[in-house]
Design a protein that fits this description.
By secondary structure, the chain is an alpha+beta fold. It has three domains: 25-100, TATA-Binding Protein (2-Layer Sandwich), CATH 3.30.310; 120-212, no CATH class; 223-422, Ribonuclease H-like superfamily/Ribonuclease H (Nucleotidyltransferase, domain 5). 38% of the residues lie in helices and 19% in strands. It contains eleven helices and 14 strands. The chain has helices spanning 28-43, 80-93, 122-132, 161-172, 182-188, 197-212, 272-296, 312-319, 336-343, 367-376, 389-422; strands at 46-47, 54-59, 62-69, 72-77, 104-105, 108-113, 116-120, 216-221, 228-235, 246-253, 256-264, 305-309, 346-350, 379-381. The strands form three sheets. It has a five-stranded antiparallel sheet. It has a five-stranded mixed sheet with strand order 11-10-9-12-13. Helix 7 (272-296) packs across helix 8 (312-319). The chain is globular and about 75 Å long.
Length: 423
Amino acid sequence: MKMPPGYSIPNKEKVCKLKKSLYGLKQASRQWYAKFSSSLLQYGFNQSRADYTLFTKGSGPSFIALLVYVDDIIVATNDLKAVSDLKEFLATKFKIKDLGCLKYFLGLEIARNPTGIQICQRKYTLDILNDVGLLGCKPSLIPMDPNIKLCKDEGQLLDDPSEYRRMVGRLLYLTITRPDLSYSINILSQYMSSPRVPHLHAAYKVLRYLKKSPGQGLFFPSSSSYHLTVYCDSDWASCPDTRHSTTGYCVFLGHSLVSWKCKKQTTISRSSTEAEYRSMASASCEIIWIKYLLADLQVPHSQPATLYCDSKSALHIASNPVFHERTKHIELDCHLIRDKIQEGVLTTAYTPSQSQLADLLTKALHSPMFYSLLLKMRVTDLHSPSCGGILNQAKAMKSSQQHIMQATSSQQTVTSHQNQQIM
């Protein structure tokens, strides 16, 4: 604490009475992060440029990574002594509490064993169902009906829109472990300003889907390669209000789903090819960012990432740097993918529509295709009786992995045949 200018009295002792906690001030989080980050940098950590909340330190075979969210910290390392030294250093600077092995963090439930790691948000999901009063509702097989198209002007306005906004806001946090909710929550969040009765009913259907499998989450196998594989897709002019297309992509590190996105495009595409090309550009930006992140984590990835798309015309535009009359209206930033192909950062490949995993992120699907794509994404329910726990789940994952490998090999065959046609 420093005295304000003009208040200091020479040779006089002063006592200040604190009337408000520093924790509640607007600048408290900024000052805390500045103090914490400077302490870590002083200790020898390097701050990631891809994610400023990630700090890494490596010396020889020892490596330690630290991820901070306000005053909650996760530490991962291959050297237990490095963690002990880090805790001793932080104890000299701050008042800390060691919570032990990671099991629960900001609503995330983590289960580990030699086969891999399972992450879900079961408690958070059950809390939402309990607060809304749908804990005993009839479950739904899918989160959104494929035959229903929501509009901003159809239906009666809600008398109290705060209930809808609070519900969708809480559901947004579930998408960090559940890619199966990305498309439906993306649609519902577009009507936050003036929600109507059909929008509320669609949100209730999402909650009834959560009732079916509240513990559903992602499984990350311990034995996996470091090759980046990306699936991108788009749904042309899918928005009935603006006629904007929807972009969706999912990124796999080996067989682990590490990133995904569903977002409405900012401009109107004149053709489905243009919409697919824009989705490829968005996926390319994600590949570049993940490669920066892998470099900070000291994970080598020299081989080019593979970008799968189910539009042959979009693949031709991406591979051919010659100016086309039909693509001159597309922004220059979308042609980033051409430069990255020439630099060897990524390679493009064709995949059939039935093997397009990103299809789950661009449209509402019927239950057979919906659950087929979920299995390939390794989205499973650890608490399901049919799962039998994470040990028995590994057997199902192994069969799913073999299915994905077969699909990938068939895709590569189609790609080589396509390249021969291009040449």
